[in-house]
């Protein structure tokens, strides 16, 4: 697999948050990571993108260890991270945000991301802070894609967005994956995440408690009771 995580542990200060995480993402694959608040989903993405150090275990991307690399080196390996809360440069235009996303890889071609997210085209000269929530998420994903990553990790895609917009954005993920960018999707909306992903992992209090094909998990009684509100 493209990304292979084995027995990874991580945390903050004296607090260990992640325990023995095993996870993988394949070529052109969409993998969902779901679980309750505080489970450690964001911490896992932050560890893989080099924001925090792993404390044990290994993570390899195309056979290369991520453990001792900086955030920039991990971007250069082909991993993009769309963080929780989107973190756009609110005072800069959409165009400038997108170009900054392509800066390290010298990609200035906006056509491809505009084609994926047409609502951004009339907004290119507008400052990102004035976009709607859905447009901001499109801009954040588009900015991540500008580095032409082979893996994109998206944290809380649906946060604060109306269901219709969430569906519109999720519907682009298969195209993104088919074009060569695998997606590791952290999502509170388990139903939506499992509907678009091929495989999924359930993370609870820092451990993977369930994993498998998304369709199988959707039909799993524990998932239905805990995450889908089906009694
Ligand atoms: N900077 C930090 N310093 C100390 N503890 C932290 C820090 N960030 C997160 N934590 C703790 O790590 C644990 C996991 O948090 P994390 O943000 O990874 O969870 P999450 O699964 O992303 O939750 P959510 O669904 O609410 O986004 C929580 O107990 C949290 O309090
Ligand atoms: Mg989180």
From TrEMBL:
PANTHER family cross-referenced by the UniProt entry: HIGH-AFFINITY BRANCHED-CHAIN AMINO ACID TRANSPORT ATP-BINDING PROTEIN LIVF
Protein name, entry field: ABC transporter ATP-binding protein
SUPFAM superfamilies: P-loop containing nucleoside triphosphate hydrolases (SSF52540)
Domain of life: Bacteria
UniProt similarity note: Belongs to the ABC transporter superfamily.
All copies of domain ABC transporter, residue ranges: 3-230
The species this protein was found in: Paractinoplanes globisporus
CDD domains: ABC_TM1139_LivF_branched
């Amino acid at each position: 697999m493209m990304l292979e995580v084995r027995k990874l542990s991580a945390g903050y200060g004296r607090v260990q948050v992640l325990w023995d995480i095993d996870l993988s993402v394949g070529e052109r694959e969409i993998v969902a990571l779901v679980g309750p608040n505080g489970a450690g989903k964001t911490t896992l993405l932050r560890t893989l993108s080099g924001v925090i150090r792993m404390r044990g275990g290994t993570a390899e991307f195309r056979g290369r260890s991520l453990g001792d690399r900086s955030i920039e080196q991990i971007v250069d390996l082909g991993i993009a991270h769309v963080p929780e809360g989107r973190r756009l440069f609110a005072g800069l235009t959409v165009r400038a945000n997108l170009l900054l996303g392509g800066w390290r890889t010298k990609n200035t071609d906006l056509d491809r991301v505009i084609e994926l997210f047409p609502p951004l085209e009339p907004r290119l000269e507008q400052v990102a802070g004035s976009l709607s929530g859905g447009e901001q998420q499109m801009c954040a994903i588009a900015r991540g894609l500008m580095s032409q990553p082979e893996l994109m990790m998206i944290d809380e895609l649906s946060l604060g967005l109306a269901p219709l917009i969430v569906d519109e954005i999720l519907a682009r993920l298969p195209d993104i994956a088919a074009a060569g960018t695998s997606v590791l999707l952290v999502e509170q909306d388990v139903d939506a995440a499992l509907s678009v992903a091929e495989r999924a992992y359930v993370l609870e209090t820092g451990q993977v408690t369930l994993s498998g094909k998304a369709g199988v998990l959707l039909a799993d009684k524990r998932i239905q009771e805990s995450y889908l509100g089906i009694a």
